[in-house]
């Protein structure tokens, strides 16, 4: 069943309930809102945090009340600011009976104005926490609502746990909507301790559960790995039972139950690796926002190399009158999509820096871009054309960013390595890329297609440092360091390419061991300008080295620039 936004429609699986979904542009500022009209009650789920949306809700509910008077029940799927701020902001006809429902942990957090559990601290305009009174604190000892001041009826909240296949019990409560219709309320913690999901007919409102494992959201105050793991298992069982046709998330469009089932299975796999995530507090969000800026500059530089290589391939193939092959190169890797994604991200960051949008918004946008680029780079044609070295460098940058947003200590598993051997490997790689391609071309001259394929790979493998003469002065002392070899390789290669990009033809590399540190120096006999690499790229390298226990220093001697990397030496007793 397709759900349409901003129109009344029948709730699937019911005979007498309609609902009006208000679907907003996805953001962390305000959530979707779902309005249900049953025979005996109007239900508002997650009013959000937008005054304009509140006016829309008030008008829709007022019109419905004019057609038939009923009490209004306001539910929160959880207490986060973007869902709860407007819970007391409605303008409804006089004598309208309003009752508010939330899990007792969320209701208590709102009543005491808790800025951490409501994540109100995320918003730079310092919004007030909604302090509305909640008539019913769900899954607490208070089982019944007070008598209605208008109808003088008693609305009973029923508590009937669901027996799971493993013999466990899942907390569930329900309220009658009239005409044999009802609303089921499930406790679904994980994203927050107070998270609930609500079922009407075969429609399930999930709040922010579908995003609870997302980078930038896991680790927020109230997030809990064990709770989320159990909730995903229970909701998966509910969806597999076949009673759910449509799932309605707190942000974004409603999706079929089968699609949500697949999403939750992926989430369960991702969640297994999130047991040790760090708390995503305001300080770490600020650091991640800086990381977003650095990631953009570094990724753009790496992808510029990637697209430059491919455009070079396309150009030379065109000179050989191989137009079809030239067009296929650009189309296969979708360079325009890469450029468009990065350009859109850059415009977003510029707009963000000129606004008062929450910093987490920029972090989540960075996550979106990183995942989009990951999908592009996963295409088989990319590695076929460019080889794994450059592609893996970009992929590692994106993986590191997503891991950092999730709060994972992703460098802990890396093993120690020999810095001299690592540098030797980089220099051998630069040399072999130039020497081997010629022989491959000569061997392919008798086969036109093989020649084109070999030429394509040769041109695509060209490095910005291909014309550099290297001088490596290696220390005779052991250079074992407690490092992540792949990421140190990425940093050294990035520095070499950046220096090569200034036009120098000579790069000097020297190693030393001083006071329990392995030192790597990069310099040139020719001047290296201050703009050899963008400052944010260098900040990113220093950030990564800091995770490795080292640092990057930028020095100037007689107007020339030198880069110094310090790494903790590894000593054996």
DSSP summary, beta strand count = 23
Beta-strand portion reads 15-25%
The CATH architecture term of the largest domain is 4-Layer Sandwich
CATH superfamily of the largest domain: Ribonuclease Z/Hydroxyacylglutathione hydrolase-like
How is the CATH topology of the largest domain named? Metallo-beta-lactamase, Chain A
Strand order of the largest sheet: 1-2-3-4-5-6-7
Please identify the structural class as seen in this structure.
alpha+beta
End-to-end separation: 68 Å
The outline comes out as: elongated
Query: Biggest sheet, in brief?
Result: 7 strands, mixed
Radius of gyration: 29 Å
Give the domain tally: 3
Average of the residue pLDDT scores: 84
Unreliable stretches covering 5 or more consecutive residues? 145-154
Would you mind describing this structure in some detail?
The protein has 3 domains: 9-141 and 162-280, Ribonuclease Z/Hydroxyacylglutathione hydrolase-like (Metallo-beta-lactamase, Chain A, 4-Layer Sandwich); 281-410, no CATH class; 414-426 and 465-573, Heat Shock Protein 90. By secondary structure, the protein is an alpha+beta fold. The protein has 15 helices and 23 strands. 42% of the residues lie in helices and 18% in strands. The protein is elongated. The chain has a 7-stranded mixed beta sheet.
């Amino acid at each position: 069943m397709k759900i349409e936004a901003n129109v009344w429609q029948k709730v699937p699986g019911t005979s007498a309930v309609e609902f009006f979904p208000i679907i907003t542009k996805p953001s962390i500022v305000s959530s979707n809102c779902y309005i249900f009209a049953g025979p005996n009650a109007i239900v508002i789920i997650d009013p959000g945090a937008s005054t304009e949306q509140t006016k829309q809700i008030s008008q829709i509910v007022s019109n419905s009340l004019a057609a038939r008077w009923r009490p209004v029940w306001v539910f929160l799927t959880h207490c986060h600011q973007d869902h709860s701020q407007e819970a007391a902001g409605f303008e409804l006809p006089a004598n309208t009976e309003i009752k508010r429902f939330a899990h007792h942990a969320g209701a208590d957090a709102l009543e005491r104005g808790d800025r951490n559990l409501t994540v109100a601290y995320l918003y730079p305009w310092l919004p007030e926490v909604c302090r509305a009174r909640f008539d019913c604190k769900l899954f607490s000892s208070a089982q019944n609502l007070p008598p209605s001041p208008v109808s003088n009826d008693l609305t009973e909240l029923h508590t009937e746990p669901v027996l799971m296949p493993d013999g466990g019990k899942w907390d569930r409560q329900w309220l009658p909507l009239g005409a044999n219709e009802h609303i089921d309320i499930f406790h679904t913690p994980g994203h927050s301790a107070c998270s609930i999901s609500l079922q009407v007919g075969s429609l399930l409102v999930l709040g922010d559960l579908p995003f609870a494992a997302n980078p930038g959201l896991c680790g927020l105050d109230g997030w809990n790995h064990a709770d989320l793991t159990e909730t995903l298992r229970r909701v998966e069982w509910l969806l597999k039972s076949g009673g759910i046709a449509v799932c309605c998330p707190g942000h974004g469009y409603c999706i079929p139950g089968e699609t949500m089932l697949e999403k939750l299975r992926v989430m369960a796999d991702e969640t297994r690796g999130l047991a040790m995530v760090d708390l995503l507090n305001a300080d770490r969000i600020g650091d991640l926002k800086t990381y977003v800026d650095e990631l953009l500059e570094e990724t753009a530089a790496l992808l510029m190399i990637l697209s430059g290589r491919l455009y070079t391939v396309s150009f030379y193939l065109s000179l050989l009158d191989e137009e079809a092959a030239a067009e296929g190169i650009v189309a296969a890797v979708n360079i325009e999509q890469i450029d468009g994604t990065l350009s859109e991200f850059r415009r977003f960051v510029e707009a963000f820096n000129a606004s008062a949008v929450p910093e987490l918004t920029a972090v989540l946008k960075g996550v979106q871009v990183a995942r989009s680029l990951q999908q592009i780079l996963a295409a088989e044609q990319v590695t076929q054309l460019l080889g794994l070295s450059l592609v893996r460098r970009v992929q590692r940058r994106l993986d590191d960013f997503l891991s950092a947003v999730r709060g994972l200590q992703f460098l802990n598993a890396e093993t120690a390595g020999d810095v001299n051997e690592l540098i030797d490997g980089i220099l051998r790689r630069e040399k072999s890329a130039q020497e081997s391609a010629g022989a491959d071309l000569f061997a392919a001259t008798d086969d036109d297609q093989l020649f084109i394929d070999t030429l394509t790979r040769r041109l695509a493998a060209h490095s910005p440092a291909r014309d550099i003469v290297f001088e490596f002065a290696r220390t005779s002392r052991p250079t074992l360091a407690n490092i992540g070899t792949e990421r140190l390789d990425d940093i050294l290669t990035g520095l070499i390419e950046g220096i090569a990009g200034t036009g120098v033809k000579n790069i000097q590399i020297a190693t030393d061991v001083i006071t329990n540190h392995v030192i790597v120096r990069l310099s040139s006999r020719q001047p290296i300008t201050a703009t050899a690499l963008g400052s944010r790229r260098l900040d990113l390298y220093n950030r990564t080295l800091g995770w490795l226990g080292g640092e990057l220093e930028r020095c100037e001697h007689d107007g020339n620039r030198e880069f110094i990397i310090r790494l903790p030496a590894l000593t054996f007793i």
